[in-house]
Amino acid sequence: MKKILFVCLGNICRSPLAEGIAKDYISQNNLDISVDSAGTSSFHIGENPCPHSIDIAKEKNIDISSLKARQVKKSDFEEFDLIIGLDRSNIANLKIMGCKQPLLLGDFGLDGEDIPDPYFFDGFEGFGKVFDMIETGVINILKSIK
After folding, report:
1. Which one of 35, 126, 135, 144 is most buried, counting C-beta atoms within 10 A?
2. What is the pLDDT of residue 118?
């Protein structure tokens, strides 16, 4: 079974969306892939995803409300087959932490774009844009490893 870890900064908005989207796609397509998410920082350990992330996922019939933020551990680099950072800052932090080959989600059908932190958008609208970007990248990753 392939194992994928999605990583952003705090593990409360982007990477939980990636985890939820991936789990939904995996379930719908009966794939033998396991996914998780984590953050490079310890800011939000134990917290649920932010309300806007929960709401945008719910609009798409994906429930991420029970996920809990955690920080990346060195053992993750051995446990997971793919470590996917959602932006270049996450990639840089993962390398500092000892991850040898983190991949950028934006390299999977998004022309190498960073997935922007939706907190830098005004209101809820940014979360929809970020969801769509994450969904594109995640589905492309999952299709590539079937």
Report:
1. 35
2. 86
Q: How far apart are CA 122 and CA 69, in angstroms?
A: 23
pLDDT value, residue 126: 83
d(CA 48, CA 53): 10
- The candidate with the shortest Cα–Cα distance to 18, out of 89, 83, 95, 112, is 83
| Residues forming the active site | 8, 14, 117
Closest CA to 110 of 78, 86, 74: 86
If we measure between CA atoms, which residue out of 125, 34, 131 comes closest to residue 82?
A: 34
pTM for the model stands at 0.96
Tell me the pLDDT band of 3, cut-offs 50, 70 and 90: very high
Q: Which domains does the chain show, CATH number per domain? A: 2-144 (3.40.50.2300)
52: exposed, middle or buried (Cβ count in 10 Å: 0-12, 13-18, 19+): buried
| Angstrom distance (rounded) from CA 26 to CA 76 | 21
